[in-house]
From TrEMBL:
Coiled coil: none annotated. GO terms for molecular function: ATP binding; ATP hydrolysis activity. Residues 35-176 form the AAA+ ATPase domain. Keywords: ATP-binding, Nucleotide-binding. It comes from Halapricum salinum. The keyword Ribonucleoprotein does not apply. InterPro entries: AAA+_ATPase, ATPase_AAA-3, CbbQ/NirQ/NorQ/GpvN, ChlI/MoxR_AAA_lid, P-loop_NTPase. SMART domains: AAA. It comes from the Archaea. This is MoxR family ATPase.
Amino acid sequence: MTDPSALYERVQSEVGTVLIGKDELVEALTVSLLTRGHILLEGVPGVAKTTLANLFARATGLEYNRIQMTPDILPADITGTYIYREQEGSFELQRGPVFANLIVADEINRATPKTQSALLEAMQERHVTIEGNTLELPDPFMVIATQNPIEMEGTFELPEAQRDRFQVKLSVDLPDREEEGELLERFDADPTLGPDGVERVVTIEELQEAREVVQSVHVADAVREYILDIVAATRSNPDIDHGASPRASIAFLNTAKARAAIHGREYVIPDDVKTMAAPILSHRLVLSTDAELGNVSRSQVVEDVLSTVETPSSKAVAEAAPYRE
């Protein structure tokens, strides 16, 4: 059985041959891959959002397709359509780019709401319907969408239903001076450095085995209650008009189990839940008008929510985990 921690270390090491300082993002990508989640990446242009997704796909051996989202792209451009072949006198299915293991929807907020919604069925149901025919998507299947937080002209904000489909939202920040200096040295030594040089270090069989290990990770009753308390707190916080949904609770459970597994533990601790709070909640919360006018950030609200919920003892949680030979 493949150890998720060993799988993560291999992926992290391979991606790190190109990118610098992205270990936390690679960890989150691995967590979502092991739990069948989707990711929303947000960052200014030039911080390697698309490159990160490409590197991750190559290191994990996933078939990768990138879709450049624009206002004129149509749903059929994503899912596919039937094309009439005059010589044969029949219609032939032309599959769209969504039929791959890892889809990068680049600048997703530039597509119209109708086109954005074309991804809804694929992300939630893992199949698409083309002219009445339902077609299964490959397994594994993962969507990584990117968006630019500073350029709003000509964009369409993702509706709540679409945002809720993303398991986590990650911010890709600018590197610090030391990291950027090391990046310059790497590209000075090898100007062609990029995804083409990354090797596959994970097989589909290993991925499936690692997923089974994640599913077997123990979650103590106290941790389950902690998750429920956090989600409930988002629904009663005065700065929040609409709190987290039950889908967020499930995301907490799954990602905490995966994080525990890739850190070599057979049980979830409260820190696993707490670490995933901002990525899981930040894009789901709808702030109140007063909070918006007061420039209260979602990250501040998440911190406030966590501060109001009592954290269970890690020692007690560990003692409650079943002993395994």
